[in-house]
UniProtKB/TrEMBL annotation:
InterPro entries for this protein: AAA+_ATPase, ABC_transporter-like_ATP-bd, ABC_transporter-like_CS, ABC_transpr_TagH-like, Bact_Polysacc_Export_ATP-bd, P-loop_NTPase
Entry annotated with the keyword RNA-binding: no
High-level lineage: Bacteria, Pseudomonadati, Bacteroidota, Flavobacteriia, Flavobacteriales
Keyword Ribosomal protein: no
Keyword terms, alphabetized: ATP-binding, Nucleotide-binding, Transport
Name under which the protein is recorded: ABC transporter ATP-binding protein
One Pfam family named in its UniProt record: ABC_tran
Family: Belongs to the ABC transporter superfamily.
Molecular function GO labels: ABC-type transporter activity; ATP binding; ATP hydrolysis activity
One GO CC term on file: membrane
Matches recorded under CDD domains: ABC_KpsT_Wzt (cd03220)
Length: 398
C-alpha cells in the first residue's frame, strides 16, 4: 500500500439520457442495429436527449477526499453510478485501482428479503472479500451499525436510519481502496453521523474518498479537493475548498424579492445595503465595520403602530441573528424612510442575507414578510464555520 498512490482516474467522462422512455427505447434499438461506435455520433445529442454528465476529469490518490457539490439535478448521482460501475459512460474512461465501497442510495445493494447478516456477506463478496475476511469483520460491522438485535431481521423491515447505519458500516469497515459516499448520511441521527466522520478520518489515509453532500461544513471538514457541477458540467475543479464553496453559494443566490406574506397595509419601495465596495455583485463589509441599511416604504393605513424586524440568515438559510426591533406610527399614503446602523459587525467571513418582517405593534400580527431581500458579504482573512467571530483581548500572565 503506497501513500499518494493513484486509485481513481476519470478522463473526459460523459453520459446522456433521453427525457422520453419510448424515444429512449427507439434510440437504443437503432444503436444496436447500426452498431454505433463512432465517438462523434456518441457526442451528438438527438431530439429529447440531454447531457446528465459532460466532460468530467479528475484524479484521486490514496489519502485524498473529493467533495462533489452542486444543486439537485446537477449530475452528481449519475457520476457516482458511473464510478461504481452501475451505468456505462457514453464516452470517456474511468480507471479504478483496488476495491470500491459505495453508499450511493438508501438501501442500494441490499436484498430486501434477506437479513442484515446475509446482506453483509453478499456485499462483502461483491467487494471481492473472501468469506473468512468477512467473518473477521462481521462483529465490527454489527457493532458499528448498532443493530445487533435486528441483524437477523429482513432488511425490508429496517427503518431508513438502520439501512444507513448498516450500509455505512459495510462500506467503511471493509476498508475499501475507494469509498464513494452520497448524501445518505443526512438521513442518520447526529450521533451516528459524527461517528461516521470519525471513521472517515481514521480510514482516509489508506483510502480515496468521493463525498457528495449539500452540507458545506461537512465538505469543508473532510475534503481536500472539490468539484462544483451544474447541468452535468464541471464549473469549478480544484483544491481551494473555500473558493469552490463560495462559487456554489453565489450560483444559487436569488436577488429577487421573495414575498412570503403581504396584507397590503404597506408597500416596500426600496431596501438598500450601503457599503463602500461591491465584489462579484455583493455589497462588502469588512469584519468589525458598520452595517448600514436604507429602507423606504409607503404606509397605506393610518393610526397603526408598526414594528420592523430584520433577520440575518447565513448562506445555508439558517437564521443566525436579529436586529433590535423598532416601532413607528403610520400615516396613510405617507412615504417613510428608515436608516439602520449596526456598528462593529462581528459576523464571520461569508455570505449573508436579510429577511424583512413588518408586523402590528399592538397584536404582533404579520403585515409584510419578504425573505432574501438583500445579500452582503463579510470579509476577513480567516475563514471559520461559526457564524460569529467575536472581538476579544487576551492577557497572558506567567
Amino acid at each position: 500500500m503506497t501513500e499518494g498512490e493513484l486509485l481513481l482516474k476519470v478522463e473526459n467522462v460523459s453520459k446522456k439520457f433521453c427525457k422520453d422512455l419510448k424515444t429512449s427505447l427507439w434510440y437504443g434499438i437503432k444503436d444496436l442495429i447500426s452498431g454505433v461506435s463512432s465517438s462523434n455520433k456518441e457526442r451528438i445529442l438527438r431530439p429529447k436527449e440531454f447531457w446528465a454528465v459532460k466532460d468530467i476529469n479528475f484524479e484521486l490518490k490514496r489519502g485524498e477526499c473529493l467533495g462533489l457539490i452542486g444543486h439537485n439535478g446537477a449530475g452528481k448521482s449519475t457520476l457516482l453510478k458511473i464510478l461504481n460501475g452501475l451505468i456505462k459512460p457514453d464516452s470517456g474512461q474511468v480507471t479504478i485501482k483496488g476495491r470500491v465501497g459505495a453508499l450511493i442510495e438508501l438501501g442500494a445493494g441490499f436484498n430486501p428479503i434477506l437479513s442484515g447478516r446475509e446482506n453483509i456477506y453478499n456485499n462483502g463478496a461483491i467487494l471481492g472479500f473472501t468469506r473468512k475476511e468477512i467473518d473477521d469483520k462481521l462483529e465490527d460491522i454489527i457493532d458499528f451499525a448498532e443493530i445487533r438485535e435486528f441483524i437477523d431481521m429482513p432488511v425490508q423491515n429496517y427503518s431508513s436510519g438502520m439501512k444507513v447505519r448498516l450500509g455505512f458500516a459495510v462500506a467503511a469497515q471493509m476498508e475499501p481502496d475507494v469509498l464513494i459516499i452520497d448524501e445518505v448520511l443526512a438521513v442518520g441521527d447526529l450521533g451516528f453521523t459524527l461517528k461516521c466522520f470519525k471513521t472517515i478520518d481514521t480510514i482516509l489515509p489508506n483510502t480515496a474518498v468521493v463525498f457528495v453532500s449539500h452540507s458545506m461544513p461537512m465538505v469543508s471538514r473532510i475534503c481536500n479537493k472539490i468539484i462544483l457541477m451544474e447541468n452535468g458540467e464541471p464549473k469549478y475543479v480544484g483544491e481551494d475548498i473555500g473558493e469552490g464553496i463560495d462559487k456554489y453559494y453565489s450560483r444559487f443566490t436569488n436577488n429577487n424579492s421573495n414575498v412570503v406574506f403581504d396584507d397590503n397595509s404597506l408597500t416596500l419601495d426600496s431596501f438598500k445595503i450601503k457599503t463602500e465596495s461591491v465584489i462579484n455583485g455583493f455589497p462588502v463589509i469588512n469584519w468589525g465595520g458598520n452595517l448600514k441599511l436604507d429602507i423606504n416604504f409607503t404606509t397605506k393605513i393610518k393610526k397603526e403602530t408598526f414594528c420592523i424586524v430584520i433577520i440575518i440568515s447565513d448562506k445555508e438559510q439558517r437564521p443566525i441573528a436579529m436586529l433590535q426591533e423598532s416601532q413607528f406610527n403610520s400615516i396613510e399614503n405617507k412615504s417613510m424612510r428608515v436608516l439602520v446602523d449596526v456598528s462593529d459587525l462581528q459576523l464571520s467571513k461569508g455570505l449573508y442575507n436579510f429577511n424583512l418582517v413588518m408586523k402590528s405593534g399592538m397584536t404582533n400580527e404579520p403585515r409584510l414578510r419578504i425573505n432574501n431581500i438583500g445579500e452582503f458579504q463579510v470579509i476577513h482573512e480567516k475563514e471559520v464555520w461559526q457564524p460569529f467571530l467575536l472581538r476579544a483581548t487576551y492577557d497572558f500572565i506567567s
